[in-house]
Amino acid sequence: KQWYQRRVAITAGGRTDATQICDDLLGYPFSTCHSQIDAGDAYKGAYSDCMRDVCSCIGDRICACDSYASYAASCGEFGVDLSNWRSFISYCHKGDIDK
Questions:
Q1: Considering the entire predicted model, what is its pTM?
Q2: Which of 49, 52, 58, 81 has CA 20 to 30 A from 26's CA?
Q3: Are 63 and 24 in contact (CB under 8 A)?
Q4: DSSP code of 44?
């Protein structure tokens, strides 16, 4: 197991909470980039990064925003414009901890 999987197991429902939060990477608007960059899963890619970030914050969903911003920036390098992703993710506001 990766370190975040061990840490989140300490808190009741932690993995479930992190999964529910990071599942936003699998939906719109991020899904428009999946054909260019795989969002990954619990073991690799942006999804794994999101799980690690959220678990390190003990389930605070705002900690996922950095992973979302990184994924959106990578998508931009492939010509997929996700510059407005924050308008679809209510808990990520410009100027929060994300890039």
A1: 0.82
A2: 58
A3: no
A4: B
Q: How many CB atoms lie within 10 A of CB 81?
A: 12
**Whether 82 contacts 30, CB under 8 Å:** yes
Query: CA 74, CA 61: separation in Å to the nearest integer?
Result: 21
Give, rounded to a whole angstrom, the gap between the first and last alpha carbons of the chain: 28
50 neighbors 67 (Cβ within 8 angstroms):
yes
Structure tokens at 76: 């931009």
